[in-house]
Amino acid sequence: MKSKISLLALLFVLMTYSSCQKEENTQEMPGNIPGMGNAEGQLEIKEPFVLPEGVSFVGEIRGFGDAPIAIEQPSMVSLKSDENDVLTLGCGGQWIALDLLLENSDGFNKEVVIPAGCVFECQEDGYQHGITLHDVRIHLLGNSQLQVKLYLFCINKGKHGSSSVVTFIIRGVSASQWIKKLTDALLYKGIDVSSFSEEQMDEYNRISTGLQDIVWAITNGSGVNQRDWDFINALRDLINED
Fold first, then answer.
1. Main-chain dihedrals φ then ψ at residue 82, nearest 5 degrees
2. pLDDT digits (tens, 9 = 90+) for 178-206
3. Please, which of 32, 120, 192, 209 could form a disulfide with 130 given CB 3.0 to 4.6 Å?
4. Distance CA 209, CA 206 (A)
């Protein structure tokens, strides 16, 4: 009887060890995240994106603008030179800017939150998927429509940027552990384009370019290094502002 119990205990220990080893071996590796960078597979989502009741998208989500943006030719134009009736939000934008038309059919005001780490999947081959790195909040008045120009970071270095000829769907919050670490580090950082004035666009471009490089270090490279974390830590901290 004791021999049988000992054998069962040994099997339990071996199974536990095997399970731990399997968990360790399946830890996510930068540059090998499904659907990101050049990795095969579908984007992995831990939480779907859901609009508030009464709110919907009008038409498809498309790239903002008529020309594809080639990653080999970065454009550091002023990102706030928009039409007066378009609300510009988000961060990034050098490669992915999307055109969203939201409608609130409810008589009450609503707030749409596109959460940090939310992935926008391009429906055409050869184009980059996009991602938010911070919560994007959109205030909708009751019984109204609002057009939003949304800046995103791209997660497939080397592919084409956004264009009005390509469409996107919002998949939801990425299940990537590395993306979660990055969005957690940016939780209280002032990176949304709407918080920068025209005179501050050079600074905005510097920040968004630095963050894009960090995203690519995760999706196409070997991961975030100490210099990257120092860059993030030095960003303006909203929680300490009055």
1. -110, 170
2. 999 999 999 999 999 999 999 999 999 99
3. 120
4. 5
CB atoms within 10 A of CB 219: 27
pLDDT exceeds cutoff 70 at 164: yes
| Phi, psi torsion values for 135, nearest 5 degrees | -65, 130
| Each residue's pLDDT tens digit, 13-23 | 344 433 443 33
* CA–CA gap between residue 53 and residue 51 (Å, rounded): 6
Crossing angle, helix 177-185 and helix 201-219, to 10 degrees?
160
**DSSP secondary structure letter of residue 202:** H
- Per DSSP, the residues of 28-96 read --TT--TTSTT--SPPPEEEE--PPTTEEE-S-EEESSSS---TTS-----TT---TTEEEEES--SSE
DSSP states of 114-152 = E-TTEEEEESSTTB--EE-SS-EEEEE-TTEEEEEEEEE
Residue pair 172/119 in contact by the 8 Å Cβ criterion: yes
Token output for 220: 């196409």
**What is the Cα–Cα distance from 62 to 60, expressed in whole angstroms?**
6
Query: Strands 45-48, 136-140: parallel, antiparallel or unpaired by DSSP?
Result: unpaired
pLDDT tens for 91-124 read 999 999 999 999 999 999 999 999 999 999 999 9
